[in-house]
Write a structure and sequence with these properties.
The chain is of the alpha+beta class. The chain is built from nine helices and twelve strands. The radius of gyration is 22 Å and the shape is globular. The N terminus is likely disordered.
Length: 344
């Protein structure tokens, strides 16, 4: 796949979100006094009433986790917590994802173990753990320059973790916002370079019969050299067609068939989501939900915009419009078709 002109280097976006001092103080209060046994106790069956109080959800900075020194929490979602850390053995920066379904789990004071809030939620926890392990296994099978790499997987604190490469850069969403603030546009060469690299990654995924199913600006990172990297494979599926329930929908980026609008999932589904991501990059807004667009489509074609057409090749814009077709029949059926259009 051709690599075109490089994307302009992106300045690093600082990671925010250090823990507050009171969290550290509360953790310090749980430390054993001098001379006491410092061994952690499994609090799935607490032995003292003081053990029943909840601890902060995130692990504290400077905590040593299986040879990785945590620096800070960099994100927290419904099923996990993400940390920036240092691999003390190999001397490299990494990202660690922790399985932590916060609506049914918590940490307990006196230990950093993760426990169920209610034993009746055990089956939900088993399902969430299987999905987490599936994501880790899926990432371990992939080897592409524009897909985040997984290094290892381990268990600790009554839960599971996996370690990935640290991408030194910022999300495509932050990159777009920086352009909006400064009232500048991504150049044509930058746009083309970004497109062919991400499309190459999608072509690789689809050749493995894997659908990402959650492509959006925050799930594409740009390194300082401008290399786009696909992250977050929690919604990915290793098959095409009628996948059934449990498919994640991100309003504005997921195609109609992913949100119950009819039709089977396939490469065309990721193609739509990437088209919506490019639409956001160029216009500052994502399309309406896929289901809404099936009923009434108010999205102006990018190729019809005088402002965009004066800055970008009209054929390139038209290719994004085709990727954004609400109907599967109007879209590219494969990445190869889209790339053929881009080559002219």
């Amino acid at each position: 796949m051709p690599d075109s002109s490089p994307v302009r280097p992106i300045s690093q976006s600082p990671v925010q979100g250090d823990f507050m001092d009171d969290i550290l103080q509360r953790l310090a209060q749980q430390a054993p006094a001098a001379g006491e046994d410092a061994e952690l106790t499994d609090l799935s069956e607490p032995t003292e009433m003081s053990d029943l109080c909840p601890a902060p959800k995130e692990l504290p900075p400077d905590h040593l986790l299986n040879g990785y020194r945590l620096r800070r929490c960099v994100g927290s979602g419904g099923f996990g917590v993400t940390y920036l850390a240092d691999d003390e053995l190999l001397g490299r920066r990494v990202v660690i994802k922790e399985h932590f379904p916060h609506n049914i789990c918590e940490r307990r004071c006196g230990t950093l173990n993760v426990v169920l809030q209610d034993p009746s939620a055990a089956s939900t926890l088993d399902w969430a753990r299987e999905n987490f392990l599936r994501e880790a296994h899926l990432l371990s099978t992939l080897d592409h320059h524009n897909i985040v790499k997984i290094f290892t997987f381990f268990e600790a604190h009554n839960t599971s973790y996996y370690v990935t490469e640290y991408v030194d850069g910022q999300s495509l969403g932050d990159f777009a916002q920086a352009h909006y603030r400064h009232q500048t546009r991504i150049t044509q060469d930058e746009l083309y370079g970004l497109m062919v690299r991400v499309l190459d990654a999608l072509d690789y995924l689809h050749s493995q019969r894997i659908l990402h199913l959650d492509i959006k600006p925050d799930n594409i990172l740009l390194t300082r050299s401008g290399r786009p990297v696909l992250i977050d494979f929690g919604a990915a599926h290793e098959c095409f067609g009628d996948i059934g329930g449990g498919v994640v929908e991100t309003v504005g980026y997921s195609p109609p068939e992913q949100g119950g609008g009819g039709g089977e999932l396939g490469p065309w589904s990721d193609i739509y989501a990437f088209g919506a991501t490019l639409c956001y990059l160029l216009t500052g807004r994502s399309p309406d939900s896929g289901r809404q667009r099936m009923l009434y489509d108010s999205l102006e074609p990018l190729a019809s915009s005088a402002a965009l057409s004066s800055y970008y090749n009209r054929e390139l814009l038209a290719s994004i419009d085709r990727a954004l077709s609400p109907s599967i029949e109007g879209r590219y059926r494969s990445v190869g078709e889209w790339m053929a259009d881009l080559r002219g």
